[in-house]
Specification:
- By secondary structure, the protein is mainly alpha-helical.
- The chain has 20 helices and four strands.
- The strands form two sheets. Strands 1-2 form a two-stranded antiparallel sheet. The chain has a two-stranded antiparallel ribbon with strand order 3-4.
- Helix 7 runs antiparallel to helix 20 and helix 11 runs antiparallel to helix 12.
- The longest helix is centred in the first third of the chain and has 37 residues.
- The protein is elongated and about 105 Å long.
Length: 478
């Protein structure tokens, strides 16, 4: 009998997040990192003169990876303390080193330092995947940099842009998120070996009041774990504002993806662009013809979760009394992990969509040509003025003709006949052929092609060069 069907299992594990990101938040990663930190502590203490032998350290290293979870779990049921349970379990595997495991440290030495390392490793996955999205969109933008399409303000037709230029808007927001996360990573430091209330009193006892050795201890541990230093001061924990900063970054990624997904959902409704649709994919149980933008909808759904979830560390940071309270723990272990797992899932879908975006060029051109006569009125007016017309009279005539043509389109379902109306008006003195000559969409896209080329070279390519050493493919359940 499959008892897993009788318990709750997070959708992030079964449906959304990648195995790579799940591994970072796994028990194995957590407890192996605890052991790495205990080894780093022992090595540093030995280097600074404490009586710790090479044999003890070798024994610790021999069992750094093979966590005896069953022993730790049984012990925790007795003592109700996770860190001491794992100290006990490690000691059972390393009897000669058992006396020096966790020497001078408090629980946050392994707990908080591990959380910082998890922030670093999870962020690296986010950066790599976000860069892959930019790489996908860069190719797309370059292909369509000169293809005119309708641009919208207030979700109303405005002027023209290009399909490729619009893609740079999506890319630019992601590039800002990458910059923000890189900045936070550049400032990320270990908690270090601060002790129960951040005073390092236990280590001062171990090293008989030698402050330089206590300071050197932290430097050695930080270097061993790949950091350039530890936080300057702390209570028992690293400041929970760190979590708030990182989840603020993740909220940014969610916001950017949310904007993209909404744009694409609207474009798919317009039948201008479409997310990939598999050969045997079913869009609706009732309407066989449907091609629903379900991937973009999933991005939108997960993005809302992340944006709301980012409030959790902010409240937690603000309610840490004095040197620490434990009301951060349950919230933190859920909110931080799920924010990363959700953004990982969002980027997996984003990668998938942008690797196979479908563009319906004929539909886009038809929609452009339906509106272009209205946009061309200023050029038409200027040409008529060059031929002796009165600018104010021409402007009023264009206003009247434009409103009449728009009314016929909206109220009567007729084609846009603005050009015929202007050609028939002697005030303009222009033939239909001369007016139609003003209707080249390429004349109304401004610097779009150049803007795309410049953006790809100046912003996108450096990000691609930093992170895209190999092509990534999303792990998707869609």
């Amino acid at each position: 009998m499959d008892t897993t069907k009788d318990i709750y299992i997070s959708p992030f594990s079964t449906r959304y997040a990648s195995k790579e990101m799940q591994a970072v938040f796994s028990e194995n990663f957590k407890f192996r990192t605890w052991r790495r930190l205990w080894i780093a502590l022992a090595k540093a203490e030995q280097a600074l003169g404490l009586e710790i032998t090479d044999a003890q350290i070798a024994e610790l290293e021999a069992h750094a990876q093979d966590i005896n979870h069953d022993v730790a779990e049984a012990r925790e049921r007795e003592v109700r303390h996770d860190v001491m349970s794992h100290v006990y379990a490690y000691g059972k595997q390393c009897p000669s080193a058992e006396p020096i495991i966790h020497l001078g440290a408090t629980s946050c030495y392994v707990g908080d330092n591990t959380d910082v390392i998890i922030l670093r490793e999870a962020s690296r996955i986010i950066l790599k995947k976000a860069a892959q999205v930019i790489k996908n969109l860069a190719s797309f933008a370059d292909t369509y940099k000169a293809m005119p399409c309708m641009a919208y303000t207030h979700l109303q037709p405005a002027q023209l842009t290009t399909v490729g230029k619009r893609a740079t808007l999506w890319m630019y927001e992601l590039s800002q998120d990458i910059d923000n996360l890189e900045f936070q990573l550049s400032r990320l430091k270990l908690l270090g070996s601060k002790g129960t209330t951040g005073t390092q009193a236990s280590f001062m006892d171990l090293f008989e009041g030698d402050e330089e050795k206590v300071k050197k201890l932290e430097a050695l541990i930080a270097a061993d774990m790949g950091f350039d230093g530890c936080v300057a001061v702390s209570g028992q924990t690293y400041s929970r504002k760190t979590d708030a900063y990182f989840l603020g970054c993740l909220s940014g990624f969610a916001q950017s993806a949310y904007k993209f997904s909404n744009d694409l959902r609207i474009l798919q409704s317009f039948e201008e662009m479409e997310e990939p649709f598999e050969k045997n994919q079913i869009g609706s149980s009732a309407m066989p013809y449907k091609r629903n933008p379900m991937r973009s909808e999933r991005i939108s759904s997960l993005a809302r979760y992340v944006i709301a979830d980012a409030l959790n560390p902010a409240f937690t940071a603000g309610t840490q009394w004095f040197e620490r309270t434990l009301d951060d723990s349950a919230n933190k272990r859920i909110s931080v992990s799920e924010a990363f797992l959700a953004v990982d899932a969002i980027l997996n879908i984003y990668m998938n969509i942008t690797s196979g975006l479908v563009v319906y060029e004929n539909v886009i051109r038809r929609r452009v040509m339906e509106k272009l006569p209205f946009m061309a009125t200023e050029n038409i007016m200027m040409e008529a003025v060059k031929r002796g017309g009165n600018r104010q009279q021409l402007h009023e005539a264009l206003r009247v003709h434009s409103h009449a043509a728009a009314k016929a389109v909206k109220m009567e379902g007729r084609p846009n006949d603005l050009i015929d109306r202007i050609a028939a008006d002697p005030l303009f003195g222009l033939s239909k052929e001369e007016i139609v000559s003003q209707l080249d969409p390429g004349a109304y896209i401004g610097r779009c092609p150049s803007q795309v080329t410049e953006f790809l070279a100046d912003v996108a390519q450096p990000i691609i060069d930093r992170y895209c050493t190999e092509e990534l493919h999303a792990e998707l359940n869609v």
